[in-house]
Amino acid sequence: MLKAQSGVCAEPNLHGLTLFCNVMTDDVDSMRRKLARIPAIITELDDRFSESMLNGFVAIGADYWDVIYPETKPVYLHRFPELQQADREAPRQPFDLLLQIRSDRFDANYLAGRTLLEWLGYDIEVVDQLRTFRYLDGRDLTGFIDAPDNPKGLRKRAVALLDKEQDQEFAGGSYLLLQKFRHDLRHWDHLGGDRQQQIMGRDKVTGERLPEAEIEGVTHASKTRLISDDEQPIPLLRQNMPWGDLREQGLLALYLSQQPKAVNDWLKQRYYEDEQGNYDPLLDYTQAVTNASFFVPSPDFLNQHSYPAQPEHNQGSDTTE
């Protein structure tokens, strides 16, 4: 079975810590060695706090990839797509690295974060950090079950991870698109339950889709269905968690996939009006304030590239006069 970093296909946890980082050193060889050690550090911490189900990963930013691994690159790794129409937009903020840690103990996440930052040292700076948490029984702060159609079990690996037939070198890795949403909960709560259900297209308690006869207009459920325009399934695993305090709140959305182009199209379906002038109505009550694109390499890839490749010798030039 393909070996991925532990946080890619992990089951939901109670607490999360996400660190948005930029690299401050030009020593590429040193950074490669440090990145290669991160999955092992997370495994060691998981062994230490085994009851907390600790997991995580390091992801490489689309812009930084060409710096750290210039000799090879995932075929579809590009910047986060341009998404802007009317007052709906998703501005890009490129980051070099993303460190994601999740477990059922906040203190374990805190210690893991400190351990990773001590390992990386002054070679990086933390641009932003975000604490996330599980809300009620896996709900977004809107009160609705988050991503009720998310794949389960081994299906997670099938949609999130590249296999050897797709890309031999990057097998076990995953493309990651990230959006940090800030919700307007005051406006949302003022709508009331019935109107909220009409916007979401789902029952607020069960998460089940509302019958078509009860739906008025376009819904969030219809605009986020995991079926493409040509009726093909969109391979997408969402590892989302709410974030916030009593002043501002939202959702950290992590979209993991083996086919990022399909996810890009899925995002555009939400932001851009269709022929009938419809878009995802939930976007009237939330805004993606941070958006970025990454690749999550497998531990094998990180280890294989932890040292610079040796130059090849030209056998034909080895002559004597």
Give the helix tally: 9
Which structural class best describes the helix and strand composition? alpha+beta
Summarize the main sheet: 9 strands, antiparallel
Number of strands: 11
Beta strand %: 15-25%
What order do the helices and strands follow?
EHEHEEEHEHEHHHEEEHEH
Give the C-alpha Rg.
21 Å
Helix content: 25-40%
- Tell me the span between the first and last alpha carbons: 53 Å
Low-pLDDT stretches: 311-321
Structural domain count: 1
Shape: globular
Overall average residue pLDDT? 94
Protein name: Peroxidase
Organism: Idiomarina seosinensis
Cofactor: heme b
GO molecular function: heme binding; metal ion binding; peroxidase activity
Feature tags:
single chain; 321 residues; alpha+beta; 9-stranded antiparallel sheet; two-stranded antiparallel ribbon; 9 helices; 27% helix; globular; disordered C terminus; peroxidase activity; peroxidase; heme binding; Peroxidase; Dyp_perox_C
Summarize this, please?
By secondary structure, this protein is an alpha+beta fold. The protein has helices at 28-48, 62-68, 106-120, 155-160, 185-191, 193-200, 220-223, 260-271, 299-304; strands at residues 15-23, 55-61, 84-85, 88-89, 97-103, 124-133, 174-183, 237-238, 241-244, 249-257, 286-296. It has one domain.
